[in-house]
Amino acid sequence: MRRLPIKDGLIYKYQRPYPPTMTSKAVEMVAELMALSARTAPKGRGQDSIVIRTVAGDELKALAAKMRSLGESTGMKIFPRDAGNVEQSDACVVIGCKGADVAGIDCGGCGFATCKEMLFAQEAFASKETPFHGPNCAIKMADLGIALGSAAKTASLHNVDNRIMFTAGVGALSLGWLEGCNIAYGLPLKVSGKSIYFDRSA
Q: Do residues 153 and 58 lie in contact, with contact meaning Cβ atoms separated by under 8 Å?
């Protein structure tokens, strides 16, 4: 097994020719710009139900630890795999959507005839042990997808490697970081010579 270089007690898979503090500040700045992009992304009916949190330092370690714990409790191997990525990341942006918010147009996209019926079904579902909770407003879920895409676009424009992760969102929800949200995703960020988010074990 190839030994990885160690410096200041930390393992670096990809050596950096620049100070880590400079990298951290730059990535955290991009994370804030991603949060801005998610906040200003188009929303159905102009109603904002998106909740955003940027994570770095000790909070990033806490998120990775929670993801590993979820892997143990669920038996899903993707949790510890993704936790390894989060541990190596410089920051993470988590984005969720408030579950009790609805567009209020009774469109039927959620599978129920009215928003009121959907919210009633949501209450019955709340006690179930699942990573996400629903049903949720179809329009609000589209808003969440647009916000995630806008945030990922901003990371790409600034050349910061990232990947949208279901597992990181579940970890953030489990930690109670996104109050009122039923669904969330995380976008970990990393600056290195090669993206750590691809060429991974299944």
A: no
Tens of pLDDT, residues 39-61: 999 999 999 999 999 999 999 99
Q: CATH top-level class for 29-190?
A: alpha beta
Q: For residues 130 and 124, give the distance between their C-alpha atoms in angstroms, rounded to a whole number.
A: 13
1: its two tokens: 């097994």
Angstrom distance (rounded) from CA 135 to CA 143: 15
Strand ranges inside the chain, DSSP E: 6-7, 10-11, 50-55, 91-98, 161-162, 181-190
The answer to whether the predicted template modeling score (pTM) of the entire model surpasses 0.70 is yes
The helix/strand/coil state of 184 is strand
The backbone torsions φ and ψ at residue 47, rounded to the nearest 5 degrees and listed phi first, read: -100, 120
How many helices (H) and strands (E) would you count in the chain? 6, 6
Structural domain spans, the chain: 29-190
